[in-house]
Amino acid sequence: MSHFITVIPARAASTRLPGKMLADIAGKPLVIHAAERARASEASRVIIATDDRQIENCARQHGFETLLTRENHPSGTDRLAEVASTLGFDDTQIIVNVQGDEPLIDPELINQTAHALAAHPDASIATCAYPISSSEQFFNPNVVKVVCDTQGFAIYFSRAPIPWARDAFNRDRSQLPASFSALHHIGMYAYRSFFLKQFPLLPQGMLETTEALEQLRALEHGHKIYVLQTRQAPLAGVDTPEDLERVRNFLENR
């Protein structure tokens, strides 16, 4: 079994749902539900990394380790990088990023992502994806697609419909062709600590700025990303007021 740590980046600011990290769901703040899912995994340590004193106090009140980080991080990955440096993690330490707005994340998916990175020592990152089953999903630019090589390493991530079935889509784009394989990327990441410490120093490249996908920075700078393929989509997280009500209904009626 691989030894890994989970870090939950919990930023106070949210454009679509202000204050969502502390939003009440079935008697507990959203971020605490996510932390409890992380605690149910095989992680040896769960850390909530936040830029907000209220979230910090909430985490401690619920018995979770927390670290107050800078406010000006451009991404959750940069926040994890500060955690890795501040806490002096060994370069080989595996750290899984569990989003604070994922209160329904499966602890087993956390385990599998960490183990996938441990099993591929030439990878700096492991992430996951599942099969796309509809043309609506495939052509949706909000659905990030990933294509992999024969060993399971990412070749490219895109909001565009990839791979492109040229002949089939020239005839009909209303449905996916038979035996067609496309993957929907899941934003679950396991990192090696050495990569996290390097990440903020890597300049953004053309691909990342064009697609607005920070994982492309790793590929542009020669880092390998292993993609674990799962059979089905994880339960959705919370980005909007409608998502919050959906998750509240799910957890209150479970």
From TrEMBL:
GO molecular function: 3-deoxy-manno-octulosonate cytidylyltransferase activity
Reactions mediated catalytically: 3-deoxy-alpha-D-manno-oct-2-ulosonate + CTP = CMP-3-deoxy-beta-D-manno-octulosonate + diphosphate
Chief site of localization: cytoplasm
EC number, UniProt record: 2.7.7.38
Superkingdom of the organism of origin: Bacteria
Keyword field contains Protease: no
Record localization: Cytoplasm
Keyword Nucleotidyltransferase attached: yes
Entry keyword set: Cytoplasm, Lipopolysaccharide biosynthesis, Nucleotidyltransferase, Transferase
InterPro entries for the chain: Cytidylyl_trans, KdsB
Pathway: Nucleotide-sugar biosynthesis; CMP-3-deoxy-D-manno-octulosonate biosynthesis; CMP-3-deoxy-D-manno-octulosonate from 3-deoxy-D-manno-octulosonate and CTP: step 1/1
Function: Activates KDO (a required 8-carbon sugar) for incorporation into bacterial lipopolysaccharide in Gram-negative bacteria.
UniProt record similarity statement: Belongs to the KdsB family.
Name the record gives this protein: 3-deoxy-manno-octulosonate cytidylyltransferase
Source organism of this protein record: Advenella alkanexedens
